[in-house]
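Box 3.1 A note on notation
Throughout this textbook, protein chains are presented in two layers. The first layer is the amino acid sequence; the second is a token string describing backbone geometry. Keep the layers aligned when reading.
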Amino acid sequence: MTLFSQILQYAISGLTGGSIYAVLGICWSVVYLITKVLNFTTGEFVMLGGMLTWGFHGAGLGWLPASLLAVAATIAVALIMERTAIRPVRQPSEMVYMMLTIALASILKGVILLKWGSETRKIDPLFGNTPIQFLGATLTPQVLVIIVFLIAVTAGLSWFLNYTLFGKALRASAVNPTGARLMGIDISRFRLFCFGLAGGLGALTGIVTAPVTFTGYEIGLLNGLKGLVAAIVGGWTIIGTVLAALVLGLLEGFCAGFISASLKDVFSLLVMVIFLVLSTYRLSWRRKSL
């Protein structure tokens, strides 16, 4: 394999990972902007989507019914979580919500571990495993499915938020919750919708990516954190999150290829640490200049 082919192969691997982080970052953003909740169950929605699809298929359902049922079940879990655990908090704060969602994520992981054990599982790809050769690099059809899925989610959400009445009201609630309430907008309904949306997108992500990355009870945390990195660096916007995630995925892919595969996860989290430190210094400098 030539150097160009190696670079292209690492780039494809990075774009695949970046696409996954981008959708997860969007899930983080849609919840945080409305509720100010750092939802650490985001990664577990991905795990639920993959594991429930595998479980329902093993119970005798076809792949399509199993996938639809898994998405519906994950959305139901997200809605119940918002109603029973998030909404009743009497003294809400970001720290309280963070600890609460971490606890809920641990509960979801524990339930799946007790039900199906710690083994990783795999879902059959949608369009087979026949490799595609591209300029000396190799990719599978499922990789293309992941990238198309990201494009569809990005375009669909952008259209929904910018050109529908419900989406515009959602954006208004994120920008100015008090003003939205004064205009008669029901913020609590939007909170519930955002949790359900995050659950559905997370489950779909788990189903689409499981043929490539496998699935298991432990996959949620790390993927969720990388999505959080993309959301933070991207400024909690859809386009910014997608661009940040793709850059993060590319950096991770090249790091794994040219340095060490064992360091790629460390590298991703290091990016978040460096960004937060630099942001803190920039904010401190601005305050001093004022």
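The chain has a mean pLDDT of 84. The beta strands are 132-134, 137-139.
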